[in-house]
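Usage

Read records sequentially. Each one opens with the input sequence:
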Amino acid sequence: MDATVHRTDPLAPRQVRALLSKADALLAAARGLLDDDERARAAVREVVARLRTGRAREELGSIPVARLKDVTGGRLRLGALEQAGYGTVLRVLDATPYELQLLPGIGARTASQVHAAAGQIARAAEEAVSVRIDVDRRDPETSALVVALHRLVTAGPDLARAREAAGTLGRTLAPLLPLARPAGGRLRMLLAGGRGRQRAREAVPRIGAVLDEARENGLELLLAQAATDLLRPLPSEDEAWIDFELRAPEYYGLLGEIAASEPDRAAAEGFLPGDIASRVKAQELDDTHLRVSLRGYQSFGARFALAQGRVILGDEMGLGKTVQAVAALAHLRARGATHFLVACPASVLINWMREIENRSGLRAYPVHGSDRTAALAEWIRTGGVAVTTIDTLHRLEVPAGVAVGMLVVDEAHYVKNPQTRRSRAVAAWCERVGRVLFLTGTPMENRVEEFRNLVDHLRPGLLSDVQRNNTLTGPQTFRRTVAPVYLRRNQQDVLTELPDLVEVEEWEEFSAADLTAYREAVAAGNFMAMRRAAYAVPEKSAKLQRLRELVSEAAANGLKVVVFSHFRDVLAVVGQALGGRAHGPIAGDVTPARRQQIIDDFTSVSGHAVLLGQIQAGGIGLNLQAASVVILCEPQVKPTIESQAVARAHRMGQVRKVQVHRLLVADSVDQRMLEILGTKTRLFDDYARHSDVAASTPDAVDISEQSLARRIVQEEQERLSLPSSPAAPARDSAARTERTDSRRP
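and closes with the structure output:
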C-alpha cells in the first residue's frame, strides 16, 4: 500500500482494513514488549524484596529486644521477654502474639503491642537496607539477582528506546483504533451514525501517520529485537557473574532504577535552587544517537547543560563528566545540529575519541598532530565532533558559515588565567558558539577568583556581587549564586547504586621521544623494554603527564592515591615527577615492618597523599583502606596480579568509592595485551562451567607470559615493519628486573 495514499484521499474499506491490521500488529508487538519487560523487571523486584527481607532479618538478629521501648515510648516492660530467652527483635518477630501471650508475665495486650513494635522495626529495617552485589558473597539470593538483571543488561540501551517507543505507540494507537474500525466496512460506517463516521474519518489518517513514522524510525525491527533479547534463556549463575564482573556499572545502574535505590534527589541535582532544578528536569533528552544508558544524575547533568546553555559541570572525578557531555552532544545532533567541538588536554584526546565513538553514534575527528588539516577539512565537510587540544584551539580556522552546536572544554581549569593564549582562544570561541560546556573535576568553591575567570567566559558579570579575593559566606550561598552556571556532585552523594569500584581506561599517544624508544625495544624483541617505553623520556612522557593530572585532581579533592607498576625504575620516574613527595616505594626487598611503617605514614597523613608500590609486592597482604584512587602504570601480564592489587584499596569501600585509572598507550604493547587478555577473560569457558576449580586456581585465567611476549613482539614488529628479532624471554627479563630491584636501596 502506498504510504501516502491515506493522507490525501479517503481509503476504501479494504485499504482501511489492511491499515488497521498493521496497526493492530504493531500495537500487539508494543504491548508484548512492555509485558515482557515488566515480567523481567518484576523478577528483579521479587529477588530484591527477598534480599531486603533476608538482610533486614540479619540486622534484626543483632538488635536487642530493649529497642522495642523506643518504638512504644518506653511503655513496655520487657523483663519477662528477656528472661524467657527473647533477647533480640528477630526472636520476638518470629513468634506469634499467641506464643508471646503464653509467657509468664505477658498478657494478651502486651503480647500484641510487643509483636506490633517488632513488626514496625522490621519494616523500617527493610526500607533502610541497601541491596548491594558483592562478588565475595555469592549466596543463592544474590546470584538470583545477578541472573535476573542479566536479561535486562544484555538487551542493552536499545531496550530503553524500545520501551519508550512501545509506550508511545500504546498511548497513541490504543484510543484511535476503536474510533477507526467503522471505516473498515460500509455497513459498519452506516451503523456508526454521523458522529461515529466523522470520528472514523479523522482517526484513519492519524493511524496512517503513526505507521509512517514507525516505518521511518524502524520501530517494528526495534521492538522485535528487544522482545527477542528479553526472551533469551536465562544464563547460568557462573555466566551471569562473569558478565557482572565485566560490566558491573550497567548492573548497578539497572538495579538502582528498578529497586528505586536512587541517591538523594537534592544531592543528585547538585542542591540547585528549585526553579532551576525544575527547568532542568523539564528539559527533554533525546537519546537516539546515544549507545549507553545514563544514571539518573548523569541524565540530569546532560539536561542541565542543555537547559542552561552555557555552564560548568564540576562533578567530582569518577562520576562520568565525559559521558554527560556526549549525551548533550547526541541530543543536539538528534535535534538537527551537525558540528561540535571538543577542546581538551593532549593527554586525554584519545580518550575523548574513544568515548564519543563507543558511547554515541557521532563521528569523531582528531584535529591534532600531522593529520590535523585533513581531519579539520573532513569535519567541516561532513560534520561530527572535532576533538582538538586546548593549546591548538587558537590555530583552528573554521569558516564563519560552519555553525558549531556546542563547544566542550575539558579540564577547563586550565583556562583560569585570562592572560594566557589558551584562555584567550577559549574566550574567542565562547563568543562565537551559543552553547558552551566546561568540564572540571577540580572543586572551585574556595577559589573564587579562578572561578570568576571561568564564569566570565560563559556569563560575564554573573559574579559581580562577589568581592574579589574573598570567599563567600558559605557553600550554600555560593551554590545559589553560581547555580545558573555551575553543577557539582560528589561521589558519596550520588554513587549509592554503583559498586565500590569505578574503572577508567586512560588512553594516550606516544610522544616522539617515547615512540623512538618503543621502536628500538620492538626491533630488539625486548618485551619488558616495550612495556616501559612510555616512560623512557620522562619530560616528554604522555603517560606521566596524565598521571600528574590525575594526582593533581585527587589532591584538589583531598583523595589519597596508590600508584602501581611492575617496574621499580618506572616508580622511580613517577616519584621524581611528583617532586619526591610520594611515600614508598613498597617493593620486594622492603621488610614487612618497614612496609607497614610506610603504609601507616601514608594513612596518617590528613588529606591527600601518594603511595608507590611494585604491583607484585603491593598486591598481596596489604591493607590500603585510606586509598580511594589507584593508578596502574601499565597493563599486567597476569590479570589476577592486577586484581589483587586493586583489591587492597577496593575493600575499603565503606567510606569512599575506589577509582582505578589504567594508563594505556594506543597502538602499542598495551593495546595488544588488553586485546589478547580481554578475549581470554571473556571466553574462559572452563571457568564458566567449573567455577570452583577456577576459584581455587586463579592462574587458570592467565596465559603464558613467554607466549604472550613472543606473540606481541612479533605482531608489533610486523605492524611497524621492523626487522624480525627474537623476543627476549619475558620471565627471564622480569626475573632480572626483580633481582636488580632487590639490590637497590
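Summary fields computed downstream for this record:
- The two ends are 84 Å apart (CA to CA).
- Residues 1-261 form one domain.
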